[in-house]
């Protein structure tokens, strides 16, 4: 069997190639260049050139052919343009999930197969196994990697059965420490290379600067929301009452009630008016904002589209005893709303919705019918611990109702759902069931 390894220059893909070579497969490595621009990158240089150099040294050390492919046009069209469009709408996309679905296991896979590859291998920490149904049909399951601190199945939550059929994950059954040790023992050039960070194939970026390539910077207000707003909010009170009334049986909630619970809070009714006053011994006439019990304008920002729910850094706001977080953005009004403290009510919600046409199931047999209910575990961001929840398939979408409130549920991000672990098998890895884009 001929396997193409996507060599990135990192230690994980290097060890993946080494393992396959040792196992006797016909292996070749291929480095993909997906990005040329350096505008907005924190280092301001072409990091891909160093990565390519290391990847080529690794291939030479292992003794496998090495090739180079430029997929930058596909990456721009399928990932970066999507990013800009989502941010312009006030949503926060996950480019790494899109990169795996559209580039690594689509455009790159096609290039590899054109060169004679039967399969494509990557350095992802996850596992795949083959599942034979009672009718004899074969499908593939994607399981978490065994390293709890490095599992990357979340990033592959949009892969299809056709893509999984061609995928190989050689290091999914290893710990990161074991991968490092194996690379060091084999004297691979990437053995001590730090893990990559930032946007897939773009690197670490100053996100506002990066986005300003296409999105205009426009100054707007930063509004702090006080607890008094929630005390007076009919929606907040109604949401709390609904969740208490259903108890442990969210399936009792109607489609309309679930839809309302999934909607984020709207702070547009926090309005401010100005008043004039006289200041100093000369009684100079000045203007100021009238006090509002629900909130206060505490600063300025450069564009609401550059901020995301839960964001703490980059606000440049002082004068608070505890950290301040973004709790909502209003693109049309160009306002961002913030709250003080990690326990701020605006950070926490229990229900999210995925549009019916954006629900992706890893195996066709997993698909839920309208009206069906399924208990599972869910994560809404990479490295988040799996959270207990109930999936409810309704006519207006798939609703995820968490057992406990979740911090910073963010429109545009992916919610990934996993099977409950087998209580009789402590080594059982949860299967990734499916995923979908969180709606506004």
Report what the structure shows.
- With 440 residues, the protein is an alpha/beta fold.
- The chain has 3 domains: 2-123 and 170-211, HUPs (Rossmann fold); 220-343, no CATH class; 349-438, Translation factors (Elongation Factor Tu (Ef-tu), domain 3), CATH 2.40.30.
- The protein contains 10 helices and 19 strands.
- It has helices spanning 11-22, 47-62, 72-88, 95-114, 161-165, 176-185, 207-211, 227-232, 234-246, 255-262, and strands spanning 2-6, 26-33, 66-70, 119-121, 126-132, 138-144, 167-168, 220-225, 274-279, 284-289, 295-301, 324-330, 335-340, 348-361, 373-379, 387-394, 397-407, 414-418, 432-438.
- It has a 6-stranded antiparallel beta barrel. The chain has a 5-stranded parallel β-sheet with strand order 3-2-1-4-7, sandwiched between helices.
- Helix 3 (72-88) packs antiparallel against helix 4 (95-114).
- The chain starts with a strand and ends with a strand.
Q: How many angstroms separate the termini?
A: 45 Å
Mean pLDDT metric: 90
The strand order across the widest sheet is: 14-17-16-15-18-19
CATH class membership of the largest domain: Alpha Beta
State the shape. Answer: globular
Number of strands: 19
Which sequence of SSEs, written as H and E, runs from N to C? EHEHEHHEEEHEHHEHHHEEEEEEEEEEE
Q: Helix share of residues? A: 25-40%
- Structurally, the number of domains stands at 3
Strand content: 25-35%
Keywords:
440 residues; alpha/beta; Rossmann fold; Elongation Factor Tu (Ef-tu), domain 3; 3 domains; six-stranded antiparallel barrel; five-stranded parallel beta sheet
């Amino acid at each position: 069997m001929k396997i193409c390894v996507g060599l990135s220059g990192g230690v994980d893909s290097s060890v993946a190639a080494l393992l396959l070579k040792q196992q006797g497969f016909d292996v070749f490595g291929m480095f993909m260049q997906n990005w040329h621009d350096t505008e907005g990158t924190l280092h301001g240089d072409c990091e891909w050139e160093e990565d390519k150099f290391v990847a080529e040294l690794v291939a030479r050390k292992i003794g496998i052919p090495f090739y180079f492919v430029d997929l930058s046009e596909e990456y721009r069209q399928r990932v970066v343009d999507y990013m800009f469009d989502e941010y312009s709408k006030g949503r926060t996309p996950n480019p790494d999930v899109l990169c795996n679905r559209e580039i690594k296991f689509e455009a790159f896979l096609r290039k590899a197969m054109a060169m004679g590859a039967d399969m494509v291998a990557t350095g992802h920490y996850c596992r795949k196994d083959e599942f034979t149904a009672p009718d004899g049909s074969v499908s593939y399951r994607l399981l978490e990697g065994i390293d709890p601190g490095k599992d990357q199945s979340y990033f592959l939550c949009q892969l299809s059965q056709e893509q999984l059929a061609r995928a190989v994950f050689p290091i999914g059954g290893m710990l990161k420490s074991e991968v490092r040790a194996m690379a060091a023992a084999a004297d691979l050039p990437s053995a001590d290379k730090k893990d990559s960070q930032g946007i897939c194939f773009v690197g670490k970026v100053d996100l506002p600067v990066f986005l300003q390539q296409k999105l205009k910077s426009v100054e707007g207000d930063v509004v702090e929301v006080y607890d008094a707003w929630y005390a007076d909010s009919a929606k907040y009170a109604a949401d709390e009452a609904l969740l208490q009334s259903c108890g442990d049986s969210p399936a009792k909630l109607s489609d309309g009630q679930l839809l309302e619970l999934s909607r984020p809070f709207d702070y547009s009714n926090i309005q401010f008016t100005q008043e004039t006053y006289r200041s100093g011994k000369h009684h100079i006439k000045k203007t100021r904002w009238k006090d509002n019990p629900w909130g206060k304008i505490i600063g300025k920002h450069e564009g609401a589209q550059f901020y995301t729910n839960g964001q703490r850094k980059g606000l440049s706001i002082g004068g608070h005893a505890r950290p301040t977080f973004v709790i909502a953005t209003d693109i049309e009004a160009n306002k961002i709303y913030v709250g003080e403290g990690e326990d701020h009510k605006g950070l926490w919600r229990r229900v999210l919705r995925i549009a019916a046409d954006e629900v992706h199931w890893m195996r066709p047999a997993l698909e839920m019918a309208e009206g069906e209910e399924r208990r599972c575990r869910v994560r809404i961001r990479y490295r988040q611990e799996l959270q207990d929840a109930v999936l409810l398939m309704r006519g207006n979408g798939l609703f995820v109702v968490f057992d406990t409130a979740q911090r910073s549920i963010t429109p545009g991000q992916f919610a990934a759902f996993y099977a409950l672990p087998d209580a009789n098998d402590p080594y059982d890895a949860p299967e990734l069931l499916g995923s979908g884009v969180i709606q506004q």
